[in-house]
Specification:
mainly alpha, 39% helix, 596 residues, single chain
């Protein structure tokens, strides 16, 4: 593990500092530098595991001091930057750096926001590490350890394909987050360090992304290393299909997605399976409880292996923070604070969390509008995705005879929820509705009782799954005029969820977005989806009539609380380009995104 961490420390970034001339001519053979590491297949494998570690850190905390030896972290996972504070979720916990989760208008005052700089630098670390791998793989002296020219070439192409997929993955996040950004395809060294970057157009960047994804499709297998914990052809097909939709090319989207959705390599899980198959549950929730192929899961395209730092076999183990984000802070409820048990004096809260899915901080919550979507066709009592196994509707404790009893029924609290003063106060966006139910997708209880109230989690996680690909495919078919085909693929998802089928006449972009919310709530990088559809055919995501702002107004309102700024054309939706990058790029003027 120390070896990989050291590799990470030497990776170049877009804002690389100048190098010491003496260092450039040294030959430190006893330490791991890129010059010594990237000489054979084993070294390139190690660097690609370092890349994987960066990607897995999407579920880890936001670091706000990249480049220093002492990291300072915000209590938010990176992933919630794209899944919180939109139409189906809101910010439920105050922090100055993420006030816009609750009040979108506040984003205009956040040009210097460290969260955006953190995202920007993290994603460019991925880009430039990938560039290092891609560029240095062309060194003719590399020992690809294949034993034959054909095997050597196959090893080389696989390494490059993985790195190119990581690079395109990072640019996907960058373009949906910031719009036009610098395009870098060469490793940055002391010899080509630049301060004259320009913001390349999203269209130009997507051309490179398309080539990267296509290369990965051509060179990677449909499955990787058994459990799909590394990127593979399926992941590349999924993202390339989405890219084609963003470019207004549904025909190409259909073509690239078809082998994935209609082939036999992956399928929706429609029967009980996995380690919890004998306990209460359903096939939908089994997908999250047992996310690995070796556990019987044939749906997950990409899974994140997760383990405690001291047990990790390779790479590093970022602190996974998803439970902390999405599991509500139920111990702050008065009904829970007053709980007592004679056998658990001093550990009452540990007992409570051990019975209720593990401790969370409730920093993000699901909007009332998103809950209402499950009531389509009056199916809420049938829908596996809305039931007791999918959401924390009930809170439990033990009586003195150690018999479980119900402390709180969240369904009645949800129905009667009214706006409180915090919801209408722009200066104090803390909402703290701790009676709202939480999704169980990220639940985790530490197996040792004394750590039942631990913030961290160490279970394996779903990152990307076939159900989302089905919905992309349905969107492509709908845009090609095949509403019947679109309904067919949507109904495969609805059938697995145990709800009614829809006719072709019901299919629309809004319905697809509704179904994405019902199926993918808190998983989907929802902000990306709304921006993509708002920008379709040259659309402006900032217009109050855009899909982004229309849906936020429609589904993220509470009686007595207006979603600030979503009625205005001038409220930004894209994130601000970090001011530190603008200021450091002295060789060329960088324009800030509109609205800041």
């Amino acid at each position: 593990m120390k070896r990989i961490l050291y590799i990470l420390s030497i990776v170049s970034t877009l804002t690389l500092s100048s190098c010491n001339k003496d260092f450039l001519v040294e030959n430190p053979v006893n330490d791991i530098y890129a010059e010594n590491l990237l000489v054979n297949l084993d070294g390139f494998e190690s660097m690609n595991y370092a890349l994987l570690s960066f990607v897995r850190d999407e579920y880890g905390r936001l670091d706000i001091s990249y480049g220093s030896t002492s990291f300072s972290s915000l209590p938010f996972a990176k992933s919630v930057m794209w899944s919180c504070g939109i139409d189906n979720t809101w910010g439920n916990n105050r922090h100055n750096q993420t006030r816009f989760f609750s009040y979108p208008k506040n984003i205009v005052a956040m040009t210097d926001g460290e969260v955006f700089l953190s995202l920007f630098e993290w994603l460019y670390k991925v880009v430039n590490t990938a560039n290092m791998v891609i560029n240095r793989a062309e060194n003719p002296d590399v020992d690809w350890q294949g034993g034959s020219p054909a095997a050597d070439l196959a090893n080389k192409e696989r390494i490059i394909a993985e790195a190119r997929l990581y690079r395109a993955w990072a640019y996907r996040h960058l373009t949906y987050s910031f719009g036009d950004v610098p395009l870098s395809t060469e490793e940055i060294t002391g010899e080509n360090y630049r301060v004259d970057w320009e913001r390349n157009s999203v269209a130009d960047i997507r051309k490179v992304m398309e080539e990267d994804f296509q290369y990965a499709i051509d060179k990677l297998p449909m499955r990787s290393n058994g459990n799909n914990t590394k990127p593979n052809q399926a992941v590349a097909r999924h993202y390339l299909g989405e890219l084609y939709l963003a470019e207004g090319n549904p025909s190409s989207a259909k073509s690239v997605l078809q082998p994935l959705v209609e082939g036999g390599d992956y399928s929706l899980m429609t029967s009980r399976f996995g380690k919890d198959a004998s306990s209460s549950g359903n096939p939908f929730m089994d997908v999250f409880r047992s996310p690995l192929y070796t556990e019987g899961n044939n749906e997950v395209l990409w899974a994140f292996l997760n383990t405690e730092d001291e047990n990790v076999a390779y790479g590093n183990a970022p602190s996974i923070f998803m439970k902390n984000m999405w599991q509500n802070y139920y111990s702050n409820l008065s009904q829970v604070k007053n709980l007592k048990h004679s056998q658990y004096e001093g550990t009452t809260i540990k007992l409570f969390w051990s019975l209720n899915g593990g401790k969370g901080a409730g920093r993000c919550a699901i909007s009332l509008g998103a809950f209402a979507l499950y009531k389509y066709d009056n199916q809420q009592n049938n829908d596996y995705r809305y039931g007791d196994d999918a959401f924390v509707w009930h809170l439990y404790f033990l009586d003195e005879n150690n018999t479980r009893y119900e402390v709180l029924n969240s369904k009645s609290s949800l129905i009667n929820l009214k706006a409180n003063s915090a919801m209408s106060n722009d200066n104090d966006p803390t909402i703290k509705q701790y009676n709202l139910p939480s999704t169980r997708k990220w639940s985790y209880v530490y197996p040792i009782f004394d750590r039942s109230d631990d913030d961290q989690q160490y279970n394996d996680m779903v990152y990307l799954r076939l159900a989302e690909t089905y919905l992309l495919y349905a969107e492509a078919l709908y845009k090609l005029g095949d509403a019947t085909g679109a309904a067919q693929w949507i109904n495969k998802i609805r059938s697995r969820a145990n709800v009614s089928s829809i006719p072709a006449s019901a299919v629309s972009i809004d319905f697809i977005l509704d179904e994405r919310s019902r199926e993918l709530i808190t998983e989907e990088q929802r902000r990306h989806t709304l921006i993509r559809l708002s920008q379709e055919n040259g659309g402006n995501e900032r217009l109050s009539s855009s899909i982004f702002k229309t849906r936020v107004r429609t589904y993220n309102e509470v009686s007595g609380r207006e979603v600030r700024g979503m009625h205005d054309d001038d409220t930004p939706v894209l994130f601000p380009v970090p001011q530190k990058f603008i200021d450091s790029n002295t060789g060329r003027r960088i324009e800030q995104n509109p609205g800041y």
